[in-house]
Amino acid sequence: MTHDEPLDLGTTELSEDEEARVRREHDLDRPRAFDQRNDVDRRARTRANLLPEELGSGSADPEAQAREVLRDSDVRTEIPESAPDTMAERRESGP
């Protein structure tokens, strides 16, 4: 993925209008703005080191890989409705 490709929400239950609103509000069609607002590039640089168990298989571009993981995490954090099939169920504690 490049800095210019729109960010993916995954499968959602949002209507077309709701998804368009969410995409505007969160800069999903403006990935450079999204990255800048969330400081993705700096965070990716600090997380681009492979773990010992990853060194064997390596990565063609560890920084790009870290950037995509951070973007995905940020989207899911900002927009809980994104990819509902992967959302953790939250329960209130009872008495």
Tell me about the biggest sheet?
A: none
Structural class: mainly alpha
Low-pLDDT residue spans = none
Extended strand count:
0
The H/E string reads: HHHHH
Q: What proportion of the residues form beta strands (DSSP E)?
A: under 5%
Count of the separate structural domains: 1
Shape: globular
Helix segment tally: 5
Note the gap between the termini: 47 Å
* Radius of gyration (Å): 16 Å
Chain-averaged pLDDT: 85
Q: Report helical residue fraction.
A: 40-55%
Biased composition (Basic and acidic residues): 20-43, 64-79
Region (Disordered): 1-95
Organism: Saccharothrix hoggarensis
Protein name: DUF5709 domain-containing protein
Protein described:
- This is DUF5709 domain-containing protein.
- The chain is mostly helical and 95 residues long.
- It has one domain.
- The chain is 48% helix and 0% strand.
- The chain is built from 5 helices and no strands.
- Helix 3 packs across helix 5.
- The mean pLDDT is 85.
Brief characterization of the structure:
By secondary structure, the chain is mostly helical. The chain has five helices and no strands. The protein has one domain.
Output the keywords.
95 residues, mainly alpha, 5 helices, 0% strand, globular
